[in-house]
Write a structure and sequence with these properties.
The protein is mainly alpha-helical and about 325 residues long. About 70% of the residues lie in helices and about 5% in strands. It has eleven helices and two strands. The radius of gyration is 20 Å and the shape is globular. The N and C termini lie far apart (about 55 Å).
Length: about 325
């Protein structure tokens, strides 16, 4: 498929586009050697062609969606390989993003933490886990978020390892261990994609007041509510193919939409903290792996945690 003048080098080395200065006074303009992914020289800015950008985004989405569905249906080696590749790119993107404000010693924390948490993810994927593991991961997550707020860059790397490894481990766990996990994952992916597409179209088409101007200037209340409405409608339509009631599936779809948009908002907040717009340019029209999968990563993580917590919290 032809995307115009796009080569592997151009995709991989796309400049990280910096946002406006954050509230702590960090300069939006960083050193030239840190302004591109994997150390490439910045390219001169060109006028954005919105129609071409939308077309590239559409074509990339039409390629990725059926490919993702095929990988989930196949499972086994293909699922493991796809999640591993995505995790590697996500890890590189996080490492690059954090390194904009970190020292070299802090960078050593990331690979060590990633190896440790990758092992945890493998155990999760193959053997499942109890509520003690869940509580431990939640505690680590809260501590890591606090560390980011305090600008502790070394622990930011460690949080990145957790942020990268846990969702992909949860994805494999749902596919392999849950009843009809493949079908369920495809359903969840469809609802998340509906949320993303509806939020984009409603926000662009109708505009309106901004939802979170400090963290995600392009997100509007119209987009948020439009995404929820369309996702609930999609859930109601899909309920006829299941044994669940309309209300059950409508509520489920609405919750999925909320979690997916929260994941997208959190990703925007993290990028804002580190002064970047896109984590990379590896996916034409979409940015990086973290940019594209943020909503799905949040959704599968929450589903996995809830699945483990609900039995653990039972009194009998």
């Amino acid at each position: 498929m032809y995307f115009g003048r796009i080569s592997i080098g151009v995709i991989w080395n796309k400049p990280l586009i910096h946002s406006e200065p954050v509230t702590d006074g960090t300069e939006a303009s960083l050193q030239a050697e840190n302004s591109t992914f994997m150390g490439a020289e910045p390219e001169p800015s060109k006028p954005a062609n919105k129609n071409n950008e939308l077309m590239v985004r559409l074509v990339a989405g039409l390629i990725m969606a059926p490919l993702g569905i095929w990988v989930v249906l196949m499972g086994g080696f293909w699922l493991a390989a796809a999640t591993a590749v995505c995790a590697v790119f996500a890890a590189l993107e996080w490492s690059r993003m954090v390194s904009m404000k970190a020292d070299k010693k802090a960078g050593l924390v990331f690979p060590a933490s990633l190896v440790l948490l990758a092992g945890i993810s493998i155990l999760i994927a193959h053997y499942g886990f109890g509520y003690l593991a869940i509580y431990s991961l939640i505690g680590a997550l809260l501590i890591s978020i606090a560390a980011i707020l305090m600008k502790r860059s070394a622990i930011s790397y460690g949080f990145g390892a957790l942020y990268v490894s846990f969702p992909f481990g949860a994805f494999v766990l749902i596919r392999n261990e849950w009843t009809e996990g493949g079908v369920f994952l495809i359903l969840v992916m469809g609802l998340v994609w509906t949320t993303d597409i509806a939020a984009f179209l409603a926000g662009k088409g109708f505009g309106g007041p901004r939802f979170s101007p400090n963290n995600s200037p392009n997100k509007t209340w119209t987009g948020v509510l439009g995404a929820m409405f369309c996702t609930i409608v999609a859930g109601l339509a899909l309920s006829r193919f299941t044994d669940h009631s309309l209300i059950h599936f409508g509520v489920f779809a609405g919750v999925i939409s909320i979690v997916a948009q929260f994941g997208d908002l959190m990703e925007s907040w993290w990028k804002r903290q580190f002064g970047v717009k896109d984590t990379s340019g590896v996916i034409p029209g979409h940015g990086g792996v973290l940019d594209r999968l943020d909503s799905l990563m949040a959704t599968v993580s929450v589903l996995t945690v809830c699945d483990a917590l609900i039995p653990a919290l039972r009194l009998s």
